[in-house]
Amino acid sequence: MKKIKSILAISFLGLMALLPLSWAQCLGIRLGRYFYRQGDKNKWYRFTQSNIAHCFPELSDVERQAAVQASLIETGKSVSEMGMSWLWPPQRTLKKIVKIHHEELITNALAKGKGVIFIAPHLGNWEVLNLYLSNKYSFTAMYKPPKQPAMDKLIKRMRARLGSRMAPANVQGVRMVMKALKRGEMVGILPDQEPDLESGVYVPFFNSPALTMKLLPQLAAQTGASVVCGFAKRLPDAQGFEIYFYEGDPDINQKDVSVAAAAMNRTVEHCVRQAPWQYQWEYKRFSSRPEGEVDIYQ
């Protein structure tokens, strides 16, 4: 069954790669509207609805529904852009990046010689961002290998096309990341997926306790590396992408892991608020709850 799923997924990517970006995004819009029309029958609708209601309580019912639809449309675009992100020749994809903001944050941080920890939330098109960073810098990216071996092989090959190294989210991968930081290079970590309970700490994210990884703030404290956050914002009407870089909250380097993890979440939240409906709200970010807290996905 896993092999069949891999074949179907790779075939889908191949078909999407045949489309120009404008067509792919039109298909993504249709997908997003389909998810929205399904309502509670669609899990992505349910999770998006719950997350947005939880994180943006100030929205009226009408505003919240508009946000849910906008978010699901962006989710559909993320799906339909995967062929472009993974299978187009890298230079063709890179031409879709039309502007870069605040890149001096990276170059100045690298000049300090202690390495850079790059926070890459699931916001906009993170595969385009990975290509850009891999094209310009010595870059090691941590990732969670998928269960299908064929998909894992494809991901590693495609993400490493421009020389970046892929570090699995395990002990071996942590060693790779530490060595890269000691060389004064940049490493990329996805900060907004729930870790195992023993690997995380509950700290605020959009004013709600969220199980958050300890690894990134621990690395920052141990190495003294600079922390930069960034994302590739999707522009309307298939105009391409703009990349934004922001300095990490100063408390990310604190030795107190709860203080540092909360600072990391504030950094991510700041980026998310720049393009809120391009965030991965269909993910169950608040799946684990502290004792006594209500399950928001019921």
From TrEMBL:
Pfam families noted in UniProt: Lip_A_acyltrans (PF03279)
Record's keyword terms, sorted: Acyltransferase, Cell inner membrane, Cell membrane, Membrane, Transferase
Example GO BP: glycolipid biosynthetic process
InterPro entries found in the cross-reference section: LipA_acyltrans
Enzyme nomenclature, EC number: 2.3.1.-
Domain of life: Bacteria
A cellular component term, taken from the record's GO annotations: plasma membrane
One GO MF term: acyltransferase activity
Compartmental location: Cell inner membrane
Protein name per Swiss-Prot or TrEMBL: Lipid A biosynthesis lauroyl acyltransferase
Gene it is expressed from: htrB_2
